[in-house]
Structure formats: C-alpha cells, structure tokens
Amino acid sequence: xxxxxxxxxxxxxxxxxxxxxxxxxxxxxxxxxxxxxxxxxxxxxxxxxxxxxxxxxxxxxxxxxxxxxxxxxxxxxxxxxxxxxxxxxxxxxxxxxxxxxxxxxxxxxxxxxxxxxxxxxxxxxxxxxxxxxxxxxxxxxxxxxxxxxxxxxxxxxxxxxxxxxxxxxxxxxxxxxxxxxxxxxxxxxxxxxxxxxxxxxxxxxxxxxxxxxxxxxxxxxxxxxxxxxxxxxxxxxxxxxxxxxxxxxxxxxxxxxxxxxxxxxxxxxxxxxxxxxxxxxxxxxxxxxxxxxxxxxxxxxxxxxxxxxxxxxxxxxxxxxxxxxxxxxxxxxxxxxxxxxxxxxxxxxxxxxxxxxxxxxxxxxxxxxxxxxxxxxxxxxxxxxxxxxxxxxxxxxxxxxxxxxxxxxxxxxxxxxxxxxxxxxxxxxxxxxxxxxxxxxxxxxxxxxxxxxxxxxxxxxxxxxxxxxxxxxxxxxxxxxxxxxxxxxxxxxxxxxxxxxxxxxxxxxxxxxxxxxxxxxxxxxxxxxxxxxxxxxxxxxxxxxxxxxxxxxxxxxxxxxxxxxxxxxxxxxxxxxxxxxxxxxxxxxxxxxxxxxxxxxxxxxxxxxxxxxxxxxxxxxxxxxxxxxxxxxxxxxxxxxxxxxxxxxxxxxxxxxxxxxxxxxxxxxxxxxxxxxxxxxxxxxxxxxxxxxxxxxxxxxxx
Length: 703
Prior knowledge:
Radius of gyration: 36 Å
Strand order of the largest sheet: 28-27-26-25-29-30-31-32
Number of strands: 32
Structural class: alpha/beta
Largest sheet: 8 strands, parallel
Helix content: 25-40%
Strand content: 25-35%
Shape: elongated
Number of domains: 3
C-alpha cells in the first residue's frame, strides 16, 4: 500500500506517451505508435479489465480540432510501460494542417483506467467538498460561483455543467503558431494550452451546434477539482454529438474544465456537458477524517484495532508502521501494507560534536518506518487525514515531524501496540514528554494494550504537565476526578482492606450532600497507587469493587542492575495507568498529584513519598489538604516525630511548622470520615492558620 505515496502520478493515469512511429493514411488521418514508459506499479490499469483502460488525448490537440481513436493498448506491467496504436484524425482543415506537422517524439496523451470500483456514486462525496480548501487555500471543488447540478444515472453520479452562450473560434494567426506548437509537443515542460488561449476568440452569439468537418469548442464556468477525476459521458450527450478522446479532467490543474471539444452532426443546441467522476487513491483524496464514517466505526471497535496490529507479521525486533485513511483499508490490512525497519541507533557523540550528532540523529529518523508516511504528508503526496499505526510508540526523535504543521493537520491519531522496543511496556522520560506534546497539539494517542486487552488513550491531567492512559469510556470521569492515593509497602497488605473500603464507601456517601471543589455530586473519585502488590494491590482492588477509578503509576523494578529492589508484578486491578523506567523514579513520584493521600505501613519508598507530600504542601504546589496516616500513633511517632522535632529545634522549618496540621494519624474509617467531613464543610483547622503539632502530625483519639 505504501507504494502509493511514492507515485509521481495518480494511480488511474499513466505518464504522457510519445509518438515513436507515424504513417499517412489520407489527408486527414495518420496512424501513430505511442510508447509510454515509467508507469508506476500502482497503476490500476495493470489489475482491471483491459477494456476499461482508455487513451486520453492531449487537450491542446483536441482544441485545435484533432481526435485520436485507440486501436490497441499493450500493457507491460513488468517493464512499467505500454504501447498504444492510434488513429489520428483531423476533424477540420486547421487540425489537418497540424496533423501534417506532427513528428516522432511528440507527447500526445496518456492512459486512463476507468475502474468501476472508483466511480463516484454518492452525491455527498462531491457536495461535502464545496467550501473546503487544500493546504494552499485552493478550493477542493468549485464551479464558477455556483453548485453543480448532480444526478444519479445508471448507478453513477453525473454532473451537468451548464454551457455559456456562444463558442470559440481562432484568429487567422493561429496557422503561424502551428509549427511552434508541433515542436513544443516533444518537451513536457511547455504548457501550450495556456498559450493557445491567446488565439481563441469567443463568439458570444454563435450557435452551439455541430456539423461535419467542424469542431465545436464550447465553454463552461471553470471547474476547480482537486479530489477526483472527471470524465465526459458520451452516452449522455445529445444525439449526433461526440466528444473527442480528450475527455478526462485531471485533479492537478486549477481550472481543469472550461473548454470542451465536440464533433458530429446535429442541429440540436447543446446546453450542458455531462461528467462522471472517479476517486483518487485514498491517500490523495483530501478527505477529512470526520467524513470517514466507516473508519470511525472501525476505530470504535477495539477488537478490530487489535486485529489490525496482527497483520504486521515482521519479527518483533522490527519496527512497523502504516498510515490508514479509509475504513476498507483498515479492515483489510495485509502484511505488505506495513513498512518495516530493523532500526539501529548509533551512540550519539553529544552536543560538543554538533555536526556529527545532527547527522546521526537525522539518519536514525530516516530509519523509522513512519518516516516515509510523515515525509509524504509534509511533501503533499498524502492529502487525506488519517491515523498512524505503529508497532511501537514513535521515537521521540520524530517529534519535529510529528508536530510539523502539515502532519499535525493530517494526523488524527497515533495507535501503538507496545510503548518501547527496548523498554517493553515502560515509557522513557522523552516518550512521556512527546505524549504530552502530542496531546497539546491535538493529536490523540492510543495504546492497544495487550496486558489489559483494552484500548487506552493518553489523557493529560487537568492543569498538570503529566497524564495517564485511560479506557475510552472512563475519560470524562478521569478529567473531572478527585485523586485519592495509597502509599504503602509492596511487601505487606496489612489489615487495612476493610477499613479502607469503609472509608471509601463513606466518602461516596458524603458526595451527594457536599459542595466542595474536591467533593460534590458530579465529582468522580479516582484511586492512584504504584500498581504493584501489597498495599497497592489493596487500594486498586477496593477501588474496583466500589466503582471508583482504579489508577496506577507503574515503574519498572525489573531493570535495577543488581540493586536490592523487590521484584514487583503489576496487580490485576488497574484500569488507568502510566509507566516509568527506574531511572525516573523521582519524576514518577512527583506525578502522582494526589488530592487526598492515604499512607499505610511502608518502608523507604513510603518514607520518601511522605516527605514529598510534606514538601508539596510547604511549597504550595498543592493546597493544604488532609493526609491520612493509617496505623498506631507509636508507629508514626517512630517514623516522623524525631525528624520533625529535630527540624523544629534547629529552626530549619521555620514558618513551615504548620505543615504538621495536614497529617492525621487514624486507626479506622470512622476517624478518617470525621476528618473529611470537617474538611469538606470548612471546619477543619488546616494550613498556615492552623495549629502546630509537636509530633509532626495530629493524633485522632475519637472512636
């Protein structure tokens, strides 16, 4: 499939062919052999019924009264070429003079594949293009200052272009122009049709009828067409009228339809030109993502997304990418639709070797399988909006391209199966920065997570510079949630499960009557843990049981390199998550952003987390919310009090002693709920105006 993005021509047409042999039949007819080379492998004519492949004559020659009748087309797919036998006919005296001047080497037309699968049948396909523009501001579809008259006839969509009164004739100087034109036909860089207009005279009141030995040149309003090919429907012309074989309007010209060449014999006045339409390659249709109903429907089906990734069959050590713009393309992905690369990142020499550094980075970017697609978008070869499927999350070194103006406009989603080729399901710091930037630029990112068998979308936390991967049906709740957190040991669960459940049930019961920024009837609750076993597993399990969002910031403790870190398997109760590598342990802790932390018994990690919550309140990073310490006063005194009193005695926490009134030692849910009730009602003395506890925390004595 990716061969389309490299084609220099649309897949329904070939390059122009040139005359290799000419012979005379009579004064107004010559036979010509035409050779066409450099046909791209994507040319549809190679795969459809050969009878549907026609020769489209050069419009400049047709406007001068010449026509071409195709006798035979020999397609040579392996060579990327074709041989065409033509009969060239001079329909009037002017064209007969030009016919005599033609020489081998003249470019006279190209092949067109009238593939019925690509014939436009639905009026909406064209109608929705009105008023839209391409990347340069050119209209995708415009017909003068009005709309097209569209009808469905014989299973196809036909537009009837209204003709202006009158016809074109030529001034007497046109004959002196013919030798120059004949020579220019051998050079593809000369665009002679525009020069031809200099010699054309518009006769406003001339009749629009045809007679023998004459060509009728009629005119419509300019048809700007960027999204498909147009083709004159001869069978719908009035009886006695024929159009020349220059009957195809291409999408790469800005006024591709205004002059039409007719011949025959009829005294009936012709009023309009009937056109049918053929779609471009899906990549080049300029179609908006919102208009791809079938693709959008596919993306609503998670099983379909996981199945799409199964079509990438290269070994796991290969990166793989494919850009998808259409539902049928998505549903029928094959192994060879993907681009595969076995990338190798060289060791970068550092900023003091800037030239070499830049070269190696650029080389690595070019190795990425997504690069050809992104480059094609930047260069304008891909014009339709779509999604990028990546086996692995894109390299952060691709950020420049991913966030470029054109890619950002066309890329409507990134879907990946595994976060990292090297780090498995754990994101690097640079990955998370790219995720956040993609979200800011309006490019949604989705993880087809094999662990949970669910599709997760990266969602930044409200007013925070981090985010998490969230199941699609939970995004709205996640964005509005109050975050409760559990800190504690990964080794022991303790006996807190029942009390924690009672506490959370009590909070849910308080919610309908509360009117606080952190607790109100429309405020969901979310539980955040480290995602591992022990106390973390308790928190996530209880949250799942109560219908509270179950979240985790999960870190990779499997790559500690010999350090004494207990192996931590992820617990099975996590729905929403972000993953981290071990070298970013501190950043991971900082991104918990808890509104209501709860501490259970824990070790060094818990001590660090406790200190972090103190500092967050001292510095104003978060407001002074209550922090619950589950356990006996003696346990927490042994952990906290000596340190707090030492700092107090030394004066090193002067002005911040009040932080002690944010921490509450409790033994049961009843005590915890009493604290929360006072806090949410505004009765709790907490913050700078509150008391200072000599223990470093407040001991709750009520039952």
